[in-house]
Design a protein that fits this description.
Shape: globular
Structural class: alpha+beta
Distance between the termini: 43 Å
Radius of gyration: 16 Å
Strand order of the largest sheet: 4-3-6-7
Number of strands: 7
Helix content: 10-25%
Low-confidence stretches: 1-21
Number of helices: 1
Mean pLDDT: 83
Order of helices and strands: HEEEEEEE
Length: about 110
């Protein structure tokens, strides 16, 4: 019994890493016009974009980040005109999507 539960819990880790992968946004839920903090580590230096997608898949906000070091730890002010609801926040560089998180605006 114990052994099988160990197997199950270890199976959860790969999918969890794919979703989070060190990319975090807080607080969520957040209010319009509020400050959110975005963190990502580890990371290679370079140019990144933070993209906010609504539930229709439209990009409603974008912010450029120039990363000098090996991590992102940025405070950002959300637009005051965002509609309430659930958004997908994507961190991407020129080559690929680095992380995805969900952000609730209330």
């Amino acid at each position: 019994g114990d052994w099988s539960s160990d197997v199950c819990s270890s199976d959860l880790f790969p999918s969890h890493d794919r979703i989070g992968d060190g990319f975090r946004i807080f607080p969520s839920p957040a209010e319009r016009g509020a400050v959110i903090r975005v963190t990502q580590s580890p990371l290679t230096a370079g140019n990144y974009s933070l993209l906010l997608y609504n539930q229709q898949g439209q990009c409603v906000w974008q912010k450029q980040l120039n990363v000098q070091g090996t991590y992102i730890n940025e405070a950002m002010v959300l637009p005051v005109n965002l509609a309430f609801g659930i958004y997908r926040v994507v961190l991407a560089n020129e080559a690929m999507q680095v992380g995805v998180q969900q952000l609730v605006i209330q």
